[in-house]
Amino acid sequence: MAMPLANKKKKKKWQTYAVLFILPSFLLYTLFVIVPTVSSMYLSLTSWDGVSSDIRFIGLSNFVEIWNSERVHNALKNTLLMAVVLVLLENIVAMALAIFVDQVRWFRNLFRSVFYFPVLLSGIVMGFVWTIILNYNFGVLNQLLDVVGLGELKADWLGNPDFALLSIILSTVWKSAGYYMIIYLAGLQSIPQDLSEAASIDGANRWQQFRHITFPLLAGAMTVCIVLSMISALKIFDQIAVMTDGGPGFETETLTYIIYKVGFGELRQGFGTALAQVLFVLIMIVTVIQVKFLRKREVQL
Amino acid sequence: MQKRRKLNDILLFAGTLLLAIVFFFPILFNIMSAFKSNAEIMKDAIAFPKGLYLDSFKYLLMETEYPRAILNSLILTAISILFMILLIPMAGYAIERHNKRWTRAVFIFFLAGMMIPFQAYMIPLFKELKMLGLYGNLAGPVMIYISGSVGFGSLLYTSFLKGIPREIEESAEIDGCSKYGIFWRIVFPLLGPCTATLVVLNGLGIWNDFLMPMLVLPSGQTKTMIVEIFYYVGEFSSRWDMIFAGTTMSIIPILIVFLSLQKYFVKGIASGAIKG
Asked: Which residues fall within 8 angstroms of residue A72, CB to CB, at 6 or more apart?
């Protein structure tokens, strides 16, 4: 009889400790993540301006407006375009960088650090640097084009709607490729050397080795990189804030940027939260689909 | 064959070097421009600085609120990280070791947070902070940062704890050590690599964060460094030298921390990404 009682007492003690250990995180997380998330679902059905205490319920009107608004459509188009282009470019550049760093004979660690360093900097800081580099009158890029005699290619990279989005995309690739490079590098280093050796003895050239050995075996790293780069592309904000402020006009607005603009610039927080729901759903769908599809093509060794 | 091999190596090196120059140029350009006067930047953006022009640093540090902003960023980062280390590993430990139905439910509840983008709940959060009287107060962002990293943090710690045998904890318990003591004296030191990852990744994220601090600490005494830089871009739109001095001051600490803790950055990403 004594044993179970002692056991029970011990269990009870465990229980209270577990509760005490988890409670602070649980409370904070509930209060500052879950409560606002749940209340955003309600706020999206109101016409609240963010200031007054008058929160009027207007049903699905905000979502009807989203459905009809040209501006939102443009932002949505930009978001999706950016997501697709960024995922492609970031992964291609990251994989190339990883292969270069993996193969190069000298200064390997230095190169890795150089490619990785932009990841560590704030989007605001790097956005500003790129704004100056791309400046029409005094910028480095136009100056360089002049020097090499390609003066006619000069453009107002951030003021011209044709180039503004592209400029943001390319500077983002520069900033984040290093992050995915590290993941690909870890993937490359886990591929056993003897596979490529065997292939090269069989007469496979470098491209064939990459195509049939390296690439399929990187699928695991690729799943992770595509999911992460897609999610961060959907959330891109800092660069836009500092490089174009969504302009010229509303040309370079994305979903996250329009949420901020509408909610805090135009004081339509009900509408802003409705847009936020769209973003939330978009991110959930993308994550679930990607994980499902991409897991399938992973090759297990 | 030997010769071709060598040629290949050199070509590869040249290619990598070229890429490295392209990647490093914007950072070099930033640091270089900070030591140039505005006229120098406008005249020839690419040229090396003629001398060490330090006036923009002096001006920023003496005449503006920039030192205050640097201090705010430091305080915000340090305090948030400190509380994260105090709270999240404990939760992860209880979830992993006290494997019951309710702790598993809590774990899933925490993980769900990793899917919710900050923008999805920022507007109500803003309202909530005002209601709680935390608007414009550094305590608000501290709590938001801790809450925001509960999901990733508990994932990180639970998966790491799976690899640590329980025997040590059990023998300590027989010796009469309390659960609290077991955790802080025995388990926590073993979690070192995990904690380093958490500190490095979150510390960097907080130091660089822009949107949230801009929303909840917008003016006066509590602006962070990045928010201040953002306002300078609008305010001193034609005084690039000043902004470059500001951005350089935000880059230097990152450079120092990165060079001294490099392996944790790399390891953190590799482990975090592959697990998550």
From this structure: A65, A66, A258, A275
